[in-house]
């Protein structure tokens, strides 16, 4: 089960964070922010190889006892972070890739809105409903 989804801007500022439980939101904010360093490290290893690569899915960033944190980076350096429960072994890499594809499409639709100001927080009902659907809250 997806317990947290975050969109991080190219300047490493959070644009959107949604957690399944508001009681543990601070814990997930911490996990998302610690994953930014790992994402930057993966993106900057062998700068030429990283920029030539067409692979946007970064895979498993790190794992804790309770959660697995996965990353995805777009061509415009916007980063997506998804936190899954470790107890749920039913998620495979292809399932996580599909989550990121759905999230990327929802993000693209949200920022293509002519009233969206680039770099601002993402406040969109359609994006929110897409995230709720991905997280299983809808």
Mean pLDDT equals 89
CATH topology grouping: Beta-Lactamase
Percentage of β-strand residues: 15-25%
CATH class: Alpha Beta
- The coarse overall form would be globular
Gyration radius over CA: 14 Å
Reading the helices and strands in chain order gives EEHHEEEHH
Cα-to-Cα separation, first versus last residue: 13 Å
Number of strands: 5
- How is the largest sheet built, in terms of strand order? 2-1-5-4-3
GO biological process, one term: endoplasmic reticulum to Golgi vesicle-mediated transport
Subcellular location: Cytoplasm, Perinuclear region
GO cellular component, one term: perinuclear region of cytoplasm
Keywords: ER-Golgi transport, Transport
Q: In words, what does this structure look like?
A:
The chain has helices at about 25-45, 45-50, 95-110, 125-135; strands spanning about 1-10, 15-20, 55-65, 65-75, 80-85. The protein has about 140 residues and is of the alpha+beta class. It has one domain: Beta-Lactamase. A five-stranded antiparallel beta sheet has the order 2-1-5-4-3, sandwiched between helices. The longest helix is centred in the N-terminal third of the chain and has 20 residues, at about 25-45. The mean pLDDT is about 90.
Task: Give a quick rundown of the structure.
Helices cover 41% and strands 25% of the residues.
């Amino acid at each position: 089960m997806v317990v947290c989804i975050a969109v991080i801007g190219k300047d490493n500022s959070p644009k959107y964070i949604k957690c399944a439980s508001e009681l543990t939101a601070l814990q997930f904010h911490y996990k998302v922010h610690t994953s930014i360093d790992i994402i930057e490290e993966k993106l900057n290893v062998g700068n030429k190889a990283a920029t030539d690569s067409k692979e946007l899915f970064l895979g498993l960033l790190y794992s804790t006892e309770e959660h697995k944190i996965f990353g995805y980076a777009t061509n415009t350096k916007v980063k997506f972070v998804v936190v899954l429960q470790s107890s749920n072994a039913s998620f495979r890499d292809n399932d996580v890739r599909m989550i990121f594809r759905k999230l990327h499409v929802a993000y693209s639709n949200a920022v293509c809105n002519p009233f969206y100001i680039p770099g601002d927080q993402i406040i969109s009902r359609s994006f929110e409903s897409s995230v709720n659907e991905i997280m299983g809250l809808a």
